[in-house]
Design brief:
- The chain is an alpha+beta fold.
- The chain contains 12 helices and 12 strands.
- The protein folds into 3 domains: 125 residues, Phosphorylase Kinase, domain 1, CATH 3.30.200; 121 residues, no CATH class; 98 residues, no CATH class.
- Helix content is 43%, strand content 14%.
- The chain is globular and about 65 Å long.
- The protein starts with 10 loop residues before the first helix and ends with a helix.
Amino acid sequence: MLTDPRGAPDAAFIERVRSTYQVEPEIDRVLTRKLKGRAGPEYVPVPLERLVDGVSSLIAAESGADFTIANARWLSGGASKLQMAFDLNWRGPDGSGPERTEPMVLRMEPPEAIVETSRLREFEAIQLMTGVVPVPPCHWVDEEGKHLPHPALVYGFAQGTTKPSTRPSTQVTGIGTNFGPELRQVLATQFIDDLAAIHTVSADRLAELKSFAPAVVGSNESVLRQIAWWRRVWDEDRPEDVPLVDVAARWLIANAPPLDHVSLVHGDYRAGNFLYDEASQKITAWLDWELAVLGDRHQDLTWTTGAHFGHYHEDGRTFLASGLVPVDEFYRRYEAASGLPVDPVRLRYYRIFNDFVSCVHMLATAARVARGGKTHQDVVVGWLSMIGNVIAGKLRDSLAEVVR
């Protein structure tokens, strides 16, 4: 009987994938940790009391200030991370400020997630974006899971909603969100301006991201590292061979464009990943920075305008990127806001890149995580795995167009 080497990878398997795919050091650490823990138990609900104890240990180790934690409760949302909201009673990090109560969020990994990412990189990205775009204040990170059951970070609770309360929806957050004609006009300007601000952060500021490998104008090394990242995940997680994924990887390597500008790429910039206040109609926070990389802005531009995150206008003909603005208008306004050009050739390349990565997420990792019972979101992750075949069809069609 054939056994699945990926179900309980031994040291030889782990060393093979580590030596085959040249990824960033922090990504190697995270993926290696995942493989070493794969043979462990399925997901078991963690009592809130255990998380409160872990957060208390983390804060005590990092700040040393007196504090108490109250009103701990589960926070819904997200298909990949486990989240707890709580109130922190304290006098600030050094204990010298006025006594106050601040709402906080713990964001922690399950045993395995649909995307295995670094809490340290997410922490650094959020901190970097403070004062650039609305983000919650990021306070502490437990990158190795020393205090909590799994790696985690703690940031301030951001007020807002991801979708209009007047337009209830049962869809996964961000999938086809309809903001309505009036609200979409208000949000679209903020949405575009924020993306432009993210992509034009100075090189000096980007150098503060210590757990990110640098990217260089004129080189395609940054995207080649990303391709290696997702080829490695495919090798680690796939339940079966799918030649299309390998064909796509080879095309992406052969056609990888050099950078013309280094940007911080959010990696999941779309409806569903920002909060806004319904009264003021202002975006209050950008969330889910776990896939941030240093690279090409077109990666975000093609993801944001993807078919699964938008819907058609009331006229039935015009597709709205992330439910906000027609795609061509989005690109024009982005160019004006950022001062950076939108290159159709790069758009085509990163459209294929994003579909390749999504196939890895859905056909490999989501299927394995759901089948192995490794997450608290097994139903959602199982549903997402089914989308993989649809995305694979898009990837096939896109590749057929460029190799004719």
